[in-house]
Write a structure and sequence with these properties.
The complex is a heterodimer of chains A (440) and B (258). In chain A, 74% of the residues lie in helices and 2% in strands. With 440 residues, chain A is mainly alpha-helical. Chain A has a two-stranded antiparallel sheet with strand order 1-2. In chain A, helix 4 crosses helix 10. Chain A starts with a helix and ends in a 22-residue tail after the last helix. Chain B has 258 residues and is an alpha/beta fold. Chain B has a domain of 75 residues. In chain B, 36% of the residues lie in helices and 25% in strands. In chain B, strands 6-7-8-3-9-10 form a 6-stranded mixed β-sheet, with helices on both faces. A 4-stranded antiparallel β-sheet of chain B has the order 2-1-4-5. The longest helix of chain B is centred in the C-terminal third of the chain and has 16 residues. Chain B is globular. Classes of the chains: A mainly alpha (440), B alpha/beta (258). The interface between A and B is medium-sized, with 25 and 31 residues.
């Protein structure tokens, strides 16, 4: 309740610096989410990291030259060295045997090293002690001003609108640039435009998230969004939305506890969203996959029980099973109860596959039908493996046990045809017919 | 035999030389292809087959020479040219559907800001059906087999509704049945007076599938109708013996210019 109260107070507090901060982080989240989608899909996410780190020397140099911390000069310096770093990467790879990953590592560490060197010098000199340039390392959202947020908002709108307008160009640039070029689309221009937009997004994020963590805001929302969708358009919207959520959480947490830094909280909440997406996203998530596997396993166990009971009928050659066979059937059922619990048995009864008959559990008509077809699949497959695949008859049982649950009926009939409608399996046991016959 | 068909020249390449990082990979290519031919480009690995296609499309700038499509520079008649790139050139995990990819074939005809219209989507659906992929229309492309991926690329090229097509190994990673149906579509295109250039690897099927052949090994060895050109001598000239002198010369050029 306390948190809810805080939240309400937060939003009723019109015009406060808190709201400015939150507007800034939300806009930043949207922007980095949208542009990060392209960076991730083009496998350029680490380029963003290299650019962010390469911005640090630019920040320091801008401060050293102008002697003040005016955002315009700082951004200009940051963009210049950031871009220089980005351009040096292809330059290194084309002129040496150094590959892209190593070139990115070189640019990132060398530029960052120079940046830290300059930063330490500034901090230790007289003029720099109160400059607060170290905020650019991990960001300080609280220092965002009304003007900063207006600028971020303006650029955010411009860039999101460009993405909407040039959606098809960006789509083809990321998916198949050579084909786009053959169509006469100006791929080179859009390539440069996209990189420029990513540079601007990174630079806008330096103040609130910082050079070290900015890449996370490009990669994490986009990677989370990818888990939920197979469509580029939806991925862009989701990614922007997840970025915005991270911005809200980041700004909110840092006002609740003033010692909590905004940037790292944005990154942490994005990581949580990613973890959630990896775990729960349908079809690609870890938990839905586990759940599906569990379902399959219990399905198999049920079918194996039906099959076992049917085999007892087969031995007894009569229905219902006479007493002398019943004891072995009971053992089977008891074993099953021991193995997978009475729940499974109850479920089969609920599904109408098993019925109580006096004190005994029997196959219902429906259960009988199902078991017969299972056994047909099993034995036809065994025969197929033995005859057509030259696999020894003592090796085929386990394979058939696996495939009998998933083999479609058309394939079964195909098998029957290929094998010439056989009557018995490699072990000499009868292969049940497709359609219902007189009870065995 | 319609003599008029044979007289229209669809593609003319004149003195085309292409270099990769200063190293020439294609020397002085010269050829003309009449309209309505199904053309195989054959040659050993590293002969420059893909490079030829890419430089004709302007994806790799040539160091010299020019290409004309129906007598006009390629840049002026882009919309008359369709392209099937190598399957490996794209990321098949990309979040997009079969229909989205095929609709990309229409993008060349759309304005800068125009979205594909209902008409474009319908056309794309028609071509998806044509290559027998209608059941997969809304599938995510990572769920496709190699043969299905090639069909999607073919449908995208068909959606370009061009007159001249360049296809880079459309039979790579394709099963026998798919190969048959692709060949059938290509032959149908040829019968509709389309000119189709195909980079092909399986020499055995060349005379069966194609009616024109281009032997390439860093230079143009021979080109012409299958009957007169697909000869043992030309095959030997193209595949036999490394072109030691040409390679050494290329190395020398590269060293000089670096």
């Amino acid at each position: 309740m306390d948190i809810l109260n805080e939240f309400l107070i937060y939003f009723s507090d019109v015009g406060s610096t808190r709201r400015i901060v939150m507007a800034g982080t939300v806009l930043l989240g949207i922007l980095s989410g949208v542009l990060g989608t392209f960076a991730v899909l083009r496998r350029q996410s680490l380029l963003g990291d290299a650019m962010a780190h390469a911005a640090l020397p630019g920040i320091c140099i801008a401060f050293l030259i102008t002697g003040q911390k005016h955002p315009l000069w700082i951004m200009l310096g940051a963009s210049l060295t950031g871009l220089l770093g980005a351009m040096l990467i292809p330059w290194i790879t084309s002129r040496s045997k150094i590959k892209t990953d190593a070139a990115m590592g070189i640019i990132l560490s060398v530029f960052f090293g120079i940046g830290i060197f300059l930063l330490t010098m500034i901090q230790k000199s007289n003029m720099g002690s109160q400059a607060g340039l170290d905020h650019f390392l991990f960001g300080k959202a609280a220092s965002l001003t009304q003007e900063d947020v207006t600028a971020i908002g303006f650029l955010c709108i411009v860039m999101v609108v460009s993405v909407l307008l040039f959606y098809k160009q960006f789509q083809i640039l990321c998916f198949d640039p050579a084909f786009g070029k053959s169509l006469g689309l100006n791929i080179r221009f859009f390539d440069i435009l996209l990189i420029a937009m990513i540079v601007i997004a990174v630079m806008l994020g330096l103040q609130s998230v910082g050079v070290v963590l900015m890449v996370a805001m490009l990669i994490l929302p986009a990677s989370s969004a990818r888990q939920w969708t197979n469509s580029l358009g939806i991925m862009l919207i989701l990614s922007g939305g997840l970025g915005a959520i991270a911005g809200i959480i980041g700004a909110f947490c840092s006002t609740l506890a003033p010692k909590v830094p905004t940037g790292p909280v944005m990154v942490l909440s994005s990581s949580f969203l990613l973890f959630f997406s990896l775990s729960f996203a349908p079809s690609q998530g870890i938990l839905p996959k586990l759940w599906k596997r569990r379902q399959q396993k219990s399905h198999r166990e049920e079918e194996h029980l039906l099959k076992d009971i049917y085999k007892e009928y087969e031995k007894a050659k009569t229905f219902p099973i006479p007493l002398e066979y019943r004891s072995s059937l009971e053992t089977k059922i008891e074993q099953n109860i021991l193995f997978c619990g009475a729940k499974k048995l109850n479920r089969l009864i609920q599904k109408g596959l098993l019925v109580w008959q006096g004190n005994f559990i029997q196959l219902s008509d429906k259960g009988m039908e199902k078991a017969r077809i299972l056994l047909r699949k099993h034995r036809l497959w065994e025969l197929y493996l033995q005859r057509k695949m030259d696999i020894a008859s003592d090796h085929v049982h386990r394979d058939a046990d696996d495939i009998e649950h998933i083999l479609p009926l058309e394939v079964v009939e195909e098998l029957d045809k290929v094998l010439g409608s056989p009557q018995s399996d490699p072990h000499g046991r009868p292969i049940p017919a497709m359609h219902k016959e007189a009870r065995p | 035999m319609n003599t008029h068909t044979d007289n229209t020249i669809a593609i003319e390449v004149h003195d085309l030389t292409v270099s990769y990082q200063e190293r020439p990979v294609l020397w002085d290519i010269d050829f003309e292809i009449p309209e309505g031919k199904l053309v195989a480009i054959v040659g050993p690995n590293g002969a420059g087959k893909s490079t030829l296609i890419k430089s004709m499309l302007g994806l790799i700038p040539p160091s010299s020479g020019w290409v004309k499509i129906y007598g006009q520079p390629y840049k002026d008649v882009r919309l008359r040219v369709g392209y099937v790139p190598q399957k490996e050139s794209v990321d098949w995990d990309f979040p997009t559907s079969v229909l989205d990819v095929v609709t990309m074939g229409r993008y060349g005809k759309l304005g800068y800001f125009t979205r594909p219209s209902q008409e474009d989507w319908e056309a794309a659906k028609g071509y998806i059906k044509k290559v027998g992929m209608q059941e997969f229309q809304n599938r995510q492309i990572s769920q496709l087999s190699g043969g299905q991926q090639q069909r999607v690329f073919l449908a995208r090229a068909l959606a370009q509704e061009a007159d001249v097509y360049f296809m880079d190994e459309p039979f790579a990673g394709v099963d026998a049945i798919t190969e048959r149906s692709i060949v059938q579509i290509l032959q149908e295109m040829r019968n509709n007076k389309k000119t189709v250039l195909v980079v092909h690897h399986d020499l055995q099927t060349v005379p069966e599938y194609f009616d024109w052949v281009l032997f390439l090994n860093m230079r143009l060895v021979a080109h012409g109708p299958i009957q007169s050109t697909f000869t043992e001598e030309n095959l030997r000239k193209t595949y036999g013996g490394r072109l030691a002198i040409l390679s050494q010369a290329a190395d020398a050029v590269a060293r000089e210019r670096r």
